[in-house]
Here is the input.
Amino acid sequence: MQDFRMDTFLTVCEELNYTKAAKKLGLTQPAVSQHIRHLEKTYGTQLFGTQGKKIFLTEAGKLLHSAALTMKDDELHLRRKMADTENPVKEYHFGATLTVAEYILPDKIKNFLKNDPDCHMTITAQNTTELLREIDSGEIDFAVVEGDFPKEHYDYLLYSREPYIGVCGRDFACRTSPLCLEDLLSYTLITREKGSGTRDILESVLAEHNLKLTDFSRVVEYGSVGAIKKLVEQNCGITFLYKKAAEGELLRQTLFELPVDGFCLTHNLNFVFRKKSIFRKEYEKLFRMLK
Here is the structure.
């Protein structure tokens, strides 16, 4: 069982304020300070530094923070596994980014469910930022994500490499002639919300060409891949997404791939879990089952 003082430490890390951490934990501020001093004495090093009235994590504190998140996630996973010993039905808690959850995982999960017809699954579909938060809090054990993540805090396995393309509707003016990215700036860009892996990729590509989202004549944000495709089909703008997410529309020719010169991008989807988890072998087994 994780020491209750470690929960105090994690809350102080989250708030970077002793008073706010104490209020969140229902403790007094001196009690919070005492817990941190105990941990600093235990590990023989300072965990927080001060700069004016603000506190910050020291390098040692950052190391403990990362390890404590993994321990918390492992403990919650262990609790579920121990509960499973009383119940023969296996339970799986994991997540995926919206595009992966809707267009890539279903066929894999179908096979998974056929092989284990009695198992229960809770699958969270969220953007990369939220899924990483849920891994850290122990709400889910792992996630298949398309966005970037800090590799110093997470272990990962390459799940797949997916083509990433621009698409337009039937009436798009320049659909049949080669374009450069700058040629597209006069059009409306329809894109996912901040924190989405699909959007992060586009922003990275634009930055390589010294461009940004706001260079488009208009930007429409929509948190649904399906809705974005419908708007593009109706010639309301253009978008960029994984080819897998538009396969049906491309075959039916309600969407068309944009002929952008030099735009030939394949992006990695990764199976992500907390770094140095004691359940790594189990996660590797689940990874192979979901492949």
Remarks:
- The longest helix spans residues 59-86.
- The chain has ten helices and eleven strands.
- Residues 203 and 212 are 6 Å apart (CA to CA).
- The mean pLDDT is 89.
